[in-house]
Amino acid sequence: MASTPHVVVVGGGSTGCGIVRDLATRGVDATLVEKGNLTHGTTGRMHGLLHSGGRYAVSDRKSARECIEENMVVRDIAAHCVEETGGLFVKRPEDSEEYFREKLEGCRACDIPVEVIDGAEARRREPYLARDVEKAITVPDAAVDPFRLCVANAADAIEHGARVATHAEVTDVLVEDGAVVGVEVEHGDGPGKRSDHGPEGESRPAPGETETIRADHVINAAGAWSGEIGAMAGVDVAVRPSKGVMTVMNVRQVDTVINRCKPKGDADIVVPHETACILGTTDEEVDDPEDYPEEEWEVDRVIDELAELVPPLADARTLRSFWGVRPLYEPPGTGTDDPTDITRDYFLLDHDERDDLPGLTTVVGGKLTTYRLMAESITDHVCEKFGVDADCVTADEPLPGSEDFSVLRDYMDEFGLRSPVGRRSTQRLGSRADEVLKTDEPNPVVCTCEGVTRAEIRDAMTGENGAGADLNAVRIRTRASMGNCQGGFCAHAIAAELHPDYDEPTARAALDELYQERWKGQRHALWGEQLSQAMLSRTLHALTLSRDADPATLDDDVDFGAFDEGPENGPDDGARRDAPAGADTGGGR
Amino acid sequence: MTVESDVLVVGGGLAGATAALSAAREGASVRLVSHKDSTLRQASGLIDALGYVPPSRAAGDAGPGSDPTLDPTAGRTGALAERRPDPEGPLPNPFERVDALPDGHPYRLVGADAIRAGLALFDEVVGDLYRGGHTERNALLPTAGGTVKPTARYPASMAAGLASDDAPALIVGFESLPEYDARQLAARLRAAGVPFPVAGVEVAFPGEFRDDARVTRLAGALDRNEALGGDGTSRTGTPAREALADAVEPHLDAVGADGDGSDGKTAARVGFPAMLGDERAAAVRADLADRLGAEVFELPGGPPSIPGLRLEDRLFDALDEAGVRIETGNPVVGRELDEEGRIAHVLVDRKGREIPYAADAFVLATGGAVGKGIDSDREGVREPVLGCHVPHPEDRYEWFVDDAFGDQPYARFGVAADEALRPLGADGTVQYPNVRVAGATLGGADVAREKSASGVSLATGVVAGRGAAAVALDGTNGTDDAAGDTTEEHE
Question: Which among A418, A498, A532 has CB closest to B370?
Fold first, then answer.
């Protein structure tokens, strides 16, 4: 091939971000387009488990082996995205002894390091485990922050010359002379839908514009949406989307991933994640990955069933629930009825071989833990097609933020931050902490629940691969507004940071978007403490700040003259008149 | 040991304080018990009565399906905020549109004259700490959110901020306080069409404070006029008020310079976050105003609210003066009925001992969902102190709608009451004849969208306090006669 091929990757989930990084680091000219934020689809809607493979050790040993290998790789290359929590498969009296033994054997056969501990030891490690838990298998499960992981992959891709355009929805796949030659995308024009990063100096289409991106090859990594992309090219990709609920608790009842040791079923995992625990999940096939019912029984089931393992969950405060859609795939003709039985393996569909349509490859199935491996195999496939001879380095080169993790130290004095805030900032930023937090400007905490400072928020807006005015993208980069208050106390403060880079109407729209997004998940946690919080947030935002009835947004103009103009009808009364110096009439008298 | 009084008020917020004062003024001996800090310190300090009539299902504004922001969603996805219908308002007069509120709304129970009575009592108690009593009209005040909010009364500290005034204004923000950006806020006020030129400026709060110093710390520095700067040897530093005025003064001419269409006006008034002093707030404002040659005002905003704390202090002083005995920090944990189904006494947990507090009449003013005066779990909604009935849909997925600012059913959760504010049971009959319910514990209002929180507390506080005193003093035992007395007052 004379010149460098140009490859378009559709989908900004973990798979797409991994692929664009791999392509770029091998010197391939790559463009990633994503219709929402990075992680907008399934990646941003999972429980954050970095699998040890233990989960698949009985049913699917190939996946289990891949998981344990990639688990170790991700810990190395993305240290700042991973918390090494460890995991337990716990057995209750009614769970099968035989399955427990199979699980243990399966793990050993797949080289997953395990140990069996009795109930007392399990409760010593996790005191809230149920008293009748009999025993447990320890596994190297971990918690991973999928947002940070994707952003780091995209950032590294950009550093290596790739273009990453979010809020850029593919509206057509271009087919000429029987081959795919590119895509047509529509660039979003809402608040902050302006994130389009790549080589300096190139002109970028304006918001709302349609752009034709020609490519030598298109990779369909759209996950649950890859059927739609396939259809645009005239090929059939039979993804079977399956929904699952994740319920977020306000504290960490456990510090270890807790799995229930039984063959399969709903509601069998608790993942500690940052300040929270995430309960999962359910598994129900849906027709449309964009529009499906989010149901009460799902929330009740994960709480009630996981309370059998960790009893305090029954009455604990939940912050919100969210749903994700698994992009399950099985080759045509397999015909599995129950979505829980569909393989979690991934598939590479070469449409040239399969459908006689060159120029397009689809990658479907799989899981976040093995995202890098999937990316490597599809990048190998594309490089082979174009005769690119470059080694994959993604398993060895650390991601931005994880280059030198010795920077984890106490930033309290250096940055004038209270100790827990400094520690948490540093954990999130990894080796980028110096670069982001060293500022001469005041750096107050903007989100107090999660301890996120102005510098971090501004970096997320404007830094390399920044989120622009998309406050939900700022949120996933920083965790701002993801704590107890769900944005009630901080959403407006986060929006205030948009000045002066964005004008007032943009900031206002961006604030509404963030606030409504935060509300969406809280609806599923609307009782007890979180109902109180919802009422408090409503009181602050509607009663105090009057954001629900802002004259700037009402159809009719306000007749200011019809309202009180002061006791003396003029500007000369007020502070000075009512309080001559020395004659104090202030409060507390 | 039993603690006795004529009237026992449970709850120490605006409604409880108003009820206690009203009952005491009728001659009853009154005791007030309050468990937690009142929500006054989370409120902005504005005393609103009724600013908007929002569309609601209950008022029959829309049948099912005609307005998507009104329908319970039962777990559907998707935001509908863009299609939110405008409310009626801002209302220039808070009394005239009470009848437009849904049936069962506390204002519909007690009437507009009860709002007037509540505000009159409030005016008397707060004296010159507040403004607005000279007119029945609402005032519009700029908020820390950059909107203007209709309100019936406003702290003297906010008086110079009136949005109906055409005097040029400068809004000051402090770089270390993230609640708002003053330049963005000024732009938003212009978008609201305010009749005055306005600009914003961000300055560093003078002195060496931590980036995350609490506003109460900064307010204290102004209150004491602390000498700032230097190397901790405070005697050499500039006094805080002077230093603050010096930081703001160079920006007074900024009005008109950032695109508001006017040219080069000098600010006649300067708005600050609501943190200009605490006990000596008026002196802080006067000092700053003299140095700046401009009026000075505060912007109402979120917690921690120093104007709310100032008001709380004033209310509790008034309760002391009225002879109300106040106990804070102990929860009411139970109640006993007499043979006629009246509350005989409640049990107060004092360091683990349950002490009976008996009274002839009780006022329940424990607040709403924010302070757990109304509590809930996945199974249902309840009033935890006396066990009053709280009407609510059985399915919790009918407690909400998609739009965060829509007609949220949960926002109206509370005890249903008759016109005498006696709680109604599930069968619609009076549940406890010697109990009166006041403030956010009552259901039926959406105070956040109506901008009616303080007015509901004041109006129902007065009616509940007087009604409770009548039960205790006239021996009317909470019969319909007593209720008749109360309702006559506003008809």
Answer: A532
A369-413 pLDDT per residue, tens = 999 999 999 999 999 999 999 999 999 999 988 776 444 333 334
Query: Could you tell me the domains of chain A?
Result: 6-42+147-238+345-386 (3.50.50.60), 82-143+242-324 (3.30.9.10), 439-549 (no CATH)
Phi, psi of B445 (to 5 degrees): -100, 150
Residue that the structure tokens 């901008």 belong to: B451
Q: Which two tokens stand for residue A541?
A: 């935002």
**Each residue of B123-152: pLDDT tens digit?**
999 999 999 999 999 999 999 999 999 999
Q: Is B216 on the interface with A (CB under 8 A)?
A: no
**Cβ of A544 and B43 within 8 Å?**
yes
Question: Is B279 part of any domain?
Answer: yes
Q: Where are the beta strands (DSSP E) in A168-317?
A: 168-176, 179-187, 196-197, 210-214, 217-220, 239-249, 257-260, 269-273, 276-280, 284-285
Interchain contact A580–B (C-beta under 8 A): yes
pLDDT surpassing 60 at residue B81? no
The burial class, CB within 10 Å (0-12 / 13-18 / 19+), for B365 is buried
DSSP string for residues in B93-110: -SSTTGGGSPTT-HHHHH
Q: pLDDT of A429-463, one tens digit each?
A: 877 887 888 788 888 999 998 989 999 999 999 87
Residues of B in contact with A307 (CB under 8 A): none
CA angle A103, A105, A110 (to 5 degrees): 95
The answer to whether B368 faces chain A, any CB pair under 8 Å, is: yes
Q: What is the pLDDT of residue A580?
A: 38
Q: Which range marks the domain in which residue B292 is found?
A: 138-308
Question: Looking at this predicted complex, what is its ipTM?
Answer: 0.93
Q: What is the DSSP letter of A557?
A: P
Q: Are B141 and B149 a contacting pair, CB within 8 Å?
A: yes
